[in-house]
Amino acid sequence: MSDRRVRVRFAPSPTGALHIGGVRTCLYNYLFAKKHGGDLLLRIEDTDSTRFVPGAEEYIIESFKWLGIKFDEGVGIGGDHAPYRQSERRDIYRKYVDILLKSGNAYIAFDTPEELEKLRAEIPNFQYDAKTRSMGKNSLTMSEDEVKAKIAAGEKYVVRAKVEPNEDIVIDDMVRGKVTINSNVLDDKVLYKSADDLPTYHLANIVDDHLMEVTHVIRGEEWLPSAPLHVLLYRYFGWQDTMPRFAHLPLLLKPVGNGKLSKRDGDKLGFPVFPLRWVDPKTNEVSSGYRESGYLPEAVVNFLALLGWNPGLDRDLFTVEELTELFDLGHVSKSGARFDYEKAKWFNHEYIIKKSDAEVAAMYKPLLKEKGYEIADATLERIVGMVKTRISFVADLWEETNFFFEAPTEYDEKSIKKRWKEESPALMAELGKILEGISDFTSANMEKIVMDWIEKNGHNTGTVMNSFRITIIGAARGPHMFDIIEILGKEETLRRLNAALAVIK
Ligand code: GLU
Q: What is the pTM of this model?
């Protein structure tokens, strides 16, 4: 690597909710920047006004805030290269359009959409390039005076890159190795449109990467076809020496079948493809987000980091610090990364376990409050500690702990069929008497007394404990029984036991 300070950028276009693949792109930029002690920039590429969606920029910023991915410069932060919103950089781009026109690396074209349509209809596989540009209405086929006159008359025009034919353009990609593309397949891409006095993506992207001193362009594979033109533009401007290195990341593939992971896959299989919930401002269509679905940001970061890259160790759980330390573009896979939603859930499960009981209890508290329950923090922490390993999401806690808050109103038939024996009513009646006599109503003490009683009388432990579970919880499920009844307390335990005995036949 050269001695230039590493500077990378995430450069989304605000065209809607940010797809999870875009989140991964930004994460890889972040890890790369941190690893090399460099900077991560947030640049908003909003030069295509027809695709602009209100709220998208705010959504992007909030997503990364939630994920803990911090930018060093950019929209919402500022920095030496402000503004970072391309629509605010018009004046800058105009100058570079002129440079290309003067050097002859670009030309002006007046062809209307209808005229282009006609050419497409007449010529198979038409593209505007070295072979066909002579058929167009452009500054290469018209006199200078004609061109000037048209512009003076306010005719709309575009500026196109003049791509010379028969050249092998080599992209030295940090993920894919050397990729060679012949310039014959490229068209004379539009770089600027007079209609809105704005450059297109290609020109703005290159000019900004240069001016913002970007050293590495890490982006999705879908941008690889643009790279040859970008290489040419660097040459046209004479910026080869500081041209960023490219790294094109593999696609995120559908969980099953071929092709790119889409929102439809998420809808069909029931998982989010966006970091946060998104309401489309035009259609009001709601898309679910990882945050609202109960994911911990650390879990999402860990999960995404391993979609397309692997540090080659035999474990999957890594802190951001570890990911940063280990990250290496050379080990990003060339082939697409299959999206595995079960794995995402597994990560969340693991990250919940990693959290302290107090942290998980604090996340659970608002949910409980919504249901109308408030209990002492210490008790809630103990409850959470008993079942934390059984859940994937904080919301799953209700299913695992509802019996602490609500006495059973019915008794699970399956459990009764399997576990409630002929002797159960008598056993439970006796157990009730024993519990009533215990003054130290703590888990270990009760366990000892009850187990002694079972042993002395030759009762079946399974029958006693499962019948007991059914009376207290309503089904043969849940964590350690004596821990449960310690929290419920003697009075409530006996109340439930007697209520069950009156009902279960
Ligand atoms: N604006 C492009 C996007 O929406 C940026 C591509 C790039 O990183 O060069 O992803």
A: 0.94
